[in-house]
Amino acid sequence: MAGLPKPLADLVGELSKLPGLGPKSALRAALTLLKWPEERTRGLGRSIHDLRDSLHICSGCAGLAESDPCPICADPRRSQESLCVVSEWDSLLALEETGLYKGRYLILGGLISPLDGVEPGSLEIERLQARLSEGQVGEVILALGTTLEAEATASYIKNLLERQYPGVRLTRLAQGIPLGAEVKYVDKETLRQSMVHRQELG
């Protein structure tokens, strides 16, 4: 933005790269930070700086955690026979809030979207194959939402299972989820019902 002092302009430029923050919102956020007490802003800076050092990608589910494996993958009470596939980590968090699902997860890291340059090779498909090749998973639950990208991803995984893992049951969350919705934005009760009444993907 023209006329801003360089340090402020630099911060606004970085903040505006965050999802949902345009230049005006980024400027408001930057000006708010300037009003904070110095220790609070320095604390925020330290938290951002330490984020990458403190978090790990779980080798089991590809989720974010302070340890590897993450607490869910390390929990011996969680079923190895059920694997819930989600697109992003925040979808896992939404499902965990229901308190219903007691199996394991796998986070794909996105959804297939050729128009956006997201092909199967960009996702955690190899990690999924590795989990299935262990021979413990009897059911894969697709919790991907109902967008076009989710449908394309579900179709790809369905074909993969039919070719390589024909003994694995494939289900999806029940269609109480509105068309075009993402799992992370669906209310807790709808998610709970969708998990309870999940459907065979045929």
What would your notes on this structure say?
The mean pLDDT is 90. The chain has helices at residues 6-15, 23-35, 38-54, 71-74, 89-98, 125-133, 148-164, 188-196, and strands spanning 56-57, 64-65, 82-86, 104-107, 139-143, 169-172, 199-200. The protein is of the alpha/beta class. The protein is 44% helix and 12% strand. Strands 4-3-5-6-7 form a five-stranded mixed β-sheet. It has two domains: 6-54, RecR Domain 1 (Helicase, Ruva Protein, domain 3); 75-200, Dna Topoisomerase Vi A Subunit, Chain: A, domain 2 (3-Layer(aba) Sandwich). The protein is built from eight helices and seven strands.
Concise structural overview:
The chain has helices spanning 6-15, 23-35, 38-54, 71-74, 89-98, 125-133, 148-164, 188-196, and strands at 56-57, 64-65, 82-86, 104-107, 139-143, 169-172, 199-200.
**Backbone CA Rg:** 20 Å
> What is the approximate shape?
elongated
In the residues, how many domains can be counted? 2
Count of DSSP strands: 7
List its salient traits:
alpha/beta; Helicase, Ruva Protein, domain 3; Dna Topoisomerase Vi A Subunit, Chain: A, domain 2; five-stranded mixed sheet; 44% helix
Task: List strands and helices in order, with pairings.
Elements: H1 6-15, H2 23-35, H3 38-54, E1 56-57, E2 64-65, H4 71-74, E3 82-86, H5 89-98, E4 104-107, H6 125-133, E5 139-143, H7 148-164, E6 169-172, H8 188-196, E7 199-200
Parallel strand pairs: 3-4, 3-5, 5-6
Antiparallel strand pairs: 1-2, 6-7
Helix pairs in contact: 1-2, 5-8
